[in-house]
Design a protein that fits this description.
Elements: E1 4-8, E2 12-13, E3 21-22, E4 24-28, E5 31-36, H1 38-42, E6 50-53, E7 59-61, E8 63-68, H2 87-110, E9 113-118, H3 123-133, E10 138-145, H4 151-157, E11 169-176, H5 182-200, E12 205-208, H6 213-229, E13 237-240, H7 246-254, E14 258-262, H8 263-268, H9 275-282, E15 286-289, H10 297-309, H11 316-326, H12 328-333, E16 351-354, H13 363-368, E17 371-376, E18 379-380, H14 393-399
């Protein structure tokens, strides 16, 4: 790819906190160099610069899913557990994992998804396979599910001592579905955090997954206490699968929890999702949890924009806020905001081009916009290339 590339000819929707829409974007190698007026962008070009005319389509950051199970619907994940020791069977599992990863990566890139937060139970071994089989997806984050096994021991057995040595894979939180009383929850949470900290040498945040409003309040209050004891811990994440009231929104914001909203909730109970406007007004970080094999962030954006607009036609501020949920919100929830989520200087050039301008269409037309091009770290990955599968599956086993 040329040293620099300039994008122009359509709205550059930065998805930053200031909701800025610019005329041009210049990237240098893998990073964003400039976003602003076209006249100033031209000053950063030379004879070797490549120019990309957007032809009226919008340029956005690549979509960043706040939660997504990469292996959903693809393979039986149970053999990836540490108790599975048969080398021949493991080779077959990883072979199937590679085939599934190739298809999954292609479908995600075609939807404009360049980064996501892995929240499945595939664990460290599944992410090792992901590294080798889906090279064009970035900023993958492992959330350690408590399951029935020993997560710290499982991570050590996979050679994890502080990360994977890959900027795409980070470990940011311990998942704790809250189904017990407040005191028990606090003790369990602290035990898990300390065990994983001793394993990785880093202090992690907590992801809460309440099942009803009562356990939600338990989560919020427990996290408030957690911040008092461990102010330097990573930000907490809260998965919402049901509507909440305005008072609860205020408590969530005060507890500095980053909210991941289930797409199914938006789709099936949109009339009860007015809390999104309250969370946005409070300045809370919000992102989407994709809960189906078929991922379509633009549909989530249209659903959220409709909720934020109420009964009125879509307005720019609602669409921009909804686009932030699908981009910057995901990066914030994954503690990856320094590298991704918005079109700002120094961030990785993960970009997507839409077939039209989302700020000038109806909700129905917003759903029908297509992703016409995708760039990952400044390199075009559309149409999505075939993901690399190692020549011999033994290479996968060696990496796990």
């Amino acid at each position: 790819m040329p040293h620099r590339t300039m994008f122009y000819g359509g709205p550059i929707i930065t998805c930053n906190l200031r909701d800025e829409v610019e005329e041009a974007l210049v990237i240098e190698d893998q990073k964003i160099l400039y976003a602003g007026p076209k006249s100033r962008a031209r000053c950063l070009t030379d004879a070797d610069t490549a120019f990309v005319d957007l032809e009226g389509g919008a340029l956005l950051p690549g979509f960043f899913c706040g939660m997504l199970d990469f292996w959903q619907g693809g393979i039986d994940r149970r053999p990836l557990a540490p108790v599975f020791s048969d080398a021949g069977a493991m080779t077959e599992v990883l072979r199937r994992a590679a085939v599934h990863a190739r298809k999954r990566e292609s479908s995600l890139l075609s939807a404009g998804v360049t980064a996501f937060c892995e929240a499945g139970e595939s664990g460290a071994q599944g992410l090792r396979a992901l590294q080798l089989t889906a090279p064009d997806l970035s900023a993958t984050v492992l959330l350690c599910g408590e399951g029935d096994g020993d997560v710290p021991a499982r991570l050590v057995s996979c050679g994890v001592t502080g990360g994977f040595g890959d900027e795409r894979v980070r470990i940011v939180a311990v998942r704790i579905p809250v189904t017990i009383d407040n005191a028990g929850c606090a003790a369990r949470r602290e035990t898990w955090c300390l065990r994983v900290r001793s394993c990785l040498g880093a202090f992690l945040g907590v992801q809460y997954e309440p099942k009803d409003p009562n356990t939600l309040l338990t989560c919020v209050r427990a996290h408030t206490a957690f911040l008092r004891d461990y102010p330097a811990a990573a930000a907490g994440r809260l998965l919402l699968t049901f509507p909440v009231d305005a008072r609860t929104c205020d408590e969530i914001t005060q507890a500095r929890l980053r909210v991941v909203v289930s797409r199914r909730l938006l789709r099936e109970r949109a009339g009860e999702c007015g809390f999104l406007a309250q969370l946005t007004k409070n300045g809370a970080s919000v992102s989407f949890a994709e809960d189906e094999t078929s991922v379509s962030p633009l549909c989530g954006v249209a659903d959220a924009a409709s909720v934020l607009s109420g009964a009125r036609p879509l307005v720019d501020s609602s669409v921009l806020a909804a686009l932030r949920f699908a981009t910057l919100g995901g990066a914030l929830c994954a503690s990856a905001v320094e590298d991704a989520g918005s079109l700002e200087w120094g961030k990785r050039a993960d970009l997507l081009r839409l077939s039209g301008d989302p700020l000038s269409v109806s909700a129905a037309d917003l759903r029908r916009l297509g992703v016409t091009a995708v760039w990952r770290a400044g390199r075009s990955v559309s149409p999505a290339p075939q993901a690399h599968i190692p020549a011999q599956t033994s290479d996968l086993c060696a990496a796990v």
